[in-house]
Amino acid sequence: MSHTVTITSLPDETTDDYGYEFGGTHGADCMVGKRCERWACQTMNPEYETERIRHGLEHWWNWDNREWIVHDTDDCALGYAFEYRTEEETFDGLDLGTYPVSIEWEDTWWIEVQNTAGGEGR
Q1: First-to-final CA distance of the chain
Q2: Full-prediction pTM beyond 0.70?
Q3: Which of 10, 19, 31, 120 is surrounded by the fewest CB atoms within 10 Å?
Q4: H or E segment at 90?
Q5: How far apart are alpha carbons 112 and 58 in whole angstroms?
Q6: CA 57 – CA 75 distance, rounded (Å)
Q7: Are 103 and 114 in contact (CB under 8 A)?
Q8: What is the CA radius of gyration of the chain?
């Protein structure tokens, strides 16, 4: 899995927004889970993990919401994680260009844009 962000435009006197596009590839590590809608799956006992694969999908127990979730989507968590941050705190100090992005799960999704050039200014 390798994620990237390409900064296509910087804030200027006409706008406070950055122009950007996400790219790269994703895999099981960054797929967004959703609640399994099947009643029979939601009644599985979370203490017994022997039948976690049903209807072709692996299920994970979400202890916080007390429900089974599946990765039955191609949605990457990068877009979801980015919604909770501002462009300024994410892209501050970066010039136009393409940068690697790391995305991790620690109680919630978080992202880090890696400035491999080490530059500070625009």
Answers
A1: 29
A2: no
A3: 120
A4: helix 87-91
A5: 28
A6: 16
A7: no
A8: 19
